Amino acid sequence: MVTIKRILSMRKYTNYLYAACIMAGMLACSDNDELIDNPGEGGGAQTEQPLPELPTAQDYKDRAMWVSYDAKAKSDAHNASGISAALISWRMFLTDPDNIAFNIYKSEDGGAEVKLNEQPITNASCWSDATINPQVSNRYRVTSVGANGAEEELCEYTFTAEMAQKFYREIKLNTNVPDPSLLYKADDAQLGDLDGDGQLEIVLKREPYDGANQGGWHNGTTLLEAYRLDGTFLWQIDLGVNIRSGSHYTSFVLYDFDGDGLCELAFRSSEGTKFADGKVITDANGHVNDYRTREQGTGGWYSGASINSIAGLIFEGPEYISICRGFDGREITRTPNIPRGEEDKSKLERAQYWATYWGDDYGNRMDRFFIGVAYLDGVPDAATGIRTSNPSLIITRGVYKNWQVWALDLKNNQLEVRWKFDTVEHDPKWLAMCSHAFRVADLDGDGKDEILYGSAAIDHDGKELWCTGNGHGDCLYVGKFIKDRPGLQIVACFEEENTYALQGLGYACQVIDAATGTLIAGHGQGLNGDVGRCIVADVDPENKDFEYWSSLQSGMYSCGTGAKVDNKYPTGIGGGVMYNAAIYWSGQSTREMYDRACVASYTANPDVEKSNKNRLVYFGLYGANDGNHSTKYNPCYYGDFLGDYREEIILGSADNQSLYIFSTNHPSTHRLRHLMTDHTYDMSQAMQNIGYNQGTNLGYYVGAETMK
Ligand SMILES: [Ca+2]
Ligand SMILES: [Ca+2]
Ligand SMILES: [Ca+2]
Ligand SMILES: [Ca+2]
Fold first, then answer.
1. Whole-model pTM above 0.90?
2. CA dist., res. 529 & res. 163, Å (int)
3. Which bound ligand lies closest to the C-alpha atom of 647?
4. The pLDDT value given to residue 47
């Protein structure tokens, strides 16, 4: 047992150690306290070492310049990109003047530089180079042109002949894994600046199995790994045996919580979690207990019921929220997670409580966790992008009955509770309102973020904003979908007909006013069962505002008028209707659909030199896998992190030994500022893969009406 003196000498972990003492005492009479590991000096009895100093963040001047070239552009009429020119693109900053003009130069194999553009480029932040010689090294250089013609160098990029052989850039995955006999599949990824140099890095979750929505024992532990975009492996965190693998269990968020310009990483941890410096979370005696249930299919401890085998689920043991430095994967601090409840009671009493509070006692409804970020004191300045306050860490538990949302602030390297929202303190209408993810945006336009927890919205101060009563659903989008309507809008579809039809706003798929939670439009009125997918995007340039449609497949509708626009949809592999994710990929004024490693357009694309002008590319042709999470086929990540405003896609390779980064090769005569500088977009990309992956959306209107 830890002495009082030691607790006082380890102030940062006082709370954790106190909790660990209680746990250790409680588990002494458990049948699951076998010792499986002794981490030695990495154990809980270690003396706290001060963390090494972090670098100081540099001025953010990186244009994320990129060159995309498809050597197989015409190799397949359906699946190849059909564009044989190279695309060179770079970021337009939030602070660039509206009329900024660019020049672009090229040098082949170190030869004399040639200016590529005749007139300064004022309508794009890209250049399509149809004259590229992919056999040589091409160095591109971009300048801005002042009113007097004076140029300022902005960025340069050397595109080698070797790079020109592949449509993607490859990151080879680290092969030093805990169990080399297992395949650690490339799962969700997030982007953030880990070292403060202005260039983004990747943090990738690697799963040895997907334990979500299925019971049963699985071997292996979930990894979080960091890589530079050039493929350099940085560090690995092992979540350990007590964090089950799968989308319900392993949400993580990468964001700069303390404003030092370097991102931190937050996730749920437990005994056995091993940080990048080798430090392991243990019990107070320096041991890692394995809390996984060995009971095969015996169900809940109280009900005896289960939808799956409960083997491998974790009903006991400590749960924390750890926050780590993205720079080196070292833990900054940890705090107890939202508790299961009644942890000091008997198994039967606990299980009875869980069934009453969470909705079951077999670890399905209780073990739903999301983790994210929200600017509760004020969003970054829209004109400069400069933050006016630091964001909070948002942690949640529960979906289908009671649920809790806690806001925590990272201050002086400690996590402090700001507020806690618990549905037991609210009207029963608030129960079971969550989606398989939450979304963050300034819903009511007061300059501070709200938490959109599915069909319920929590104000920035942790109080009720509104609750539609629509209930649970799988898809949830918030952004600017109606050009001339004030504020933001929400599009969502729902699973429970008894809630959306009878308690909620009456439709299976809805357009909702974000500020008030009132209905704007809907389709699927009445009892229509589980409508699992929907999407919203401007895909039809002839129709005002965004369109939305759902897996009900009753038509494509206008967000603004609610009227049916068409009975056809963008279609993907096998001709299936696409409603998985919307993506900016082409140079058109509208948006494309992404699903199963395929980008498809609703309208025929004029830029592709192939017969199929609706399927813009299928990345499987280039060796990528189809994506993650079974039929959802989610990419590891998509969003604008390179070059111009179009969105990049990160997929695992077919053999799961690499990540492939794809960036568009489509020309464009449009330009938008780096999308992550829009707060709504930034929140949507940062939390796209907590729970079930959701798409990205801008907080200002971008559609055919504005992209002229
Ligand atoms: Ca960086
Ligand atoms: Ca930071
Ligand atoms: Ca607000
Ligand atoms: Ca981009």
1. yes
2. 49
3. 4
4. 55
